[in-house]
UniProtKB/TrEMBL annotation:
Its cofactor is Zn(2+); Mg(2+). One of its GO terms (molecular function) is zinc ion binding. It comes from Xanthobacter autotrophicus (strain ATCC BAA-1158 / Py2). This is Phosphoribosyl-AMP cyclohydrolase. Belongs to the PRA-CH family. Keywords: Amino-acid biosynthesis, Cytoplasm, Histidine biosynthesis, Hydrolase, Magnesium, Metal-binding, Zinc. The gene is hisI. Catalyzes the hydrolysis of the adenine ring of phosphoribosyl-AMP. Pathway: Amino-acid biosynthesis; L-histidine biosynthesis; L-histidine from 5-phospho-alpha-D-ribose 1-diphosphate: step 3/9; Amino-acid biosynthesis; L-histidine biosynthesis; L-histidine from 5-phospho-alpha-D-ribose 1-diphosphate: step 2/9. Its EC number is 3.5.4.19.
Amino acid sequence: MSSEISSPFAFPAPGKGAALEEDTLLSPRFDANGLITCVAVDAVTGEVLMLAHMNAQALALTIETGEAHYFSRSRGKLWKKGETSGHTQKVREMRIDCDQDAVVIKVEMGGTGAACHTGRRSCFYRTIPLGAAPSAELKLAFTGDAPRFDPAAVYGKDGHGHDH
């Protein structure tokens, strides 16, 4: 993976109030760790596929290349989605929220179409039951989204390819 941006790029400092919310200048508000939250959704169906984080370099690479790049908090490094698994994300549209501290990318999945390291299409494959008081026994329900690939075969014996 090329982790180099063709031209060095620094995002401008975020504005305040209306300048931040109504201006056309991209000035992302990175958190104290230098990250911005990113939600990836299917470009056609709108299905939520995953939530990850981007640092300035990942955001710039995503904008420049049209391929999703993220910053792994657990590994402390930049990664291009699908670099290991082949399950790339071609960005079709990118939006930033009103105060520029989160982005949504509409993507076209490559490979088997699985966005999750568990082999499933979406990282959001379990539901939380509503209407009961939360307790230590609260059980999640699977949505029926079966794995599309074997994580152990793709990521190695532990099958752990969690990048976000």
